[in-house]
UniProtKB/TrEMBL annotation:
GO terms for molecular function: oxidoreductase activity. Residues 1-53 form the Glutamate synthase alpha subunit C-terminal domain. InterPro entries: Glu_synth_asu_C, Glu_synth_asu_C_sf, Glutamate_Synthase. This is GXGXG motif-containing protein. Pfam families: GXGXG. It comes from Candidatus Kentrum sp. LPFa.
Amino acid sequence: MTGGVVVVLGGTGRNFAAGMSGGIAYVPDEKGDFNIRFNPAMVELEKITEDETDRDIMAHLEEIRELP
């Protein structure tokens, strides 16, 4: 992915974000081990609060809803 937004609804495998060079991916970390399953070469890992996540995801869904 070189831009855009991805909302992951399930789990991820190892090496998540390999080839990703831009954009945002919202990934649940239910097991608390996502920091060892992503590719840190070109992306940064950042925890966000639930309020931030809800607000951002809802804003993206509103944008999609308004598309023709």
